[in-house]
Amino acid sequence: MRVLITGGAGFLGSHLCDKFLAEGHSVIAMDNLITGSTRNIEHLAGRDDFLFIKQDVTNYIYIEGPVDAVLHFASPASPIDYMNLPIQTLKVGALGTHKVLGLAKAKGARFLQASTSEVYGDPQIHPQPESYWGHVNPIGPRGVYDEAKRFAEAMTMAYHRYHGVDTKIVRIFNTYGPRMRLEDGRVVPNFIPQALRGEPLTVFGDGLQTRSFCYCSDLIDGIYKLLMSDEHEPVNIGNPTELTIREFAETINRLTGNTAGIVVQPEKRIKDDPQTRRPDITKAHTLLGWEPKVSLEEGLTKTIEYFRHRI
Ligand code: UDP
After folding, report:
1. Which atom of ligand 1 is nearest to the CA of 270?
2. Which of 44, 70, 143, 300 pairs as cysteine with 50 (C-beta 3.0–4.6 A)?
3. What is the CATH number of domain 2-175+214-240+279-288?
């Protein structure tokens, strides 16, 4: 296949480039580099099965020749990034999704939309199955991302139902691993460098809010399987091992040998920050035969090694 990956220079986009190349496909990565970095794909430069195009996908996209699959991963994805880039976040989810779906339709390509557990908002059902419609504040600080992704899902289903495009939607839960941006403000790139510098880890709120962290290779494997499947409705991909942010901080301190502990910063917690989050992955398991394989300790150990070389 010849595959277009938007956001191809980002954290997940660049791992997808590697995965598709390793599976023998050729890859076009598109990115405007507002949160992505060419550092993530520099090892692919010069390959004749890889092409990088610097472009904002909210503008008309022209690709010469065939395209067999389009994966739309362009978007700021950390709360700090999307609050600093609210208009770009709304535009890439809305206008960008429209452009890439138009391209998929014109090329007869299959299409995969990167959606998110944020479509469930601060959930009132736990764990979250795909059938849950969510609890989102459209005008809160996270609304720019949550509603952009909800719109993107609606647009994707419309192109499927109205134009017959072969579309897929993955709802991605918290994912971590090498190539996360040091300064993106998320909990993993905040905690690990703090621990490696021997500083206390900054726990926002009371730290009793929960998340469930998936290692990037497991996520990429699930996305690849979903793209190859016949499913059109959303599928959760994530790791159901849930822990509080305090427990997560203690795990990182233990793995890095950091003795500085934690510092609780109640005021830093962003409004509407979900209190709990854990994917129900029954559908991915039944439909795709997928489940995560990498334990939290194993994934964190690899990620700590990455950040050790970056700080
Ligand atoms: N968080 C924290 N300390 C940090 C960064 C984040 O306690 O230095 C918390 C944040 O308040 C949230 C959780 O960690 O409850 C996950 O935040 P992140 O920004 O990684 O992503 P989210 O899951 O909220 O999209």
Report:
1. 11
2. 44
3. 3.40.50.720
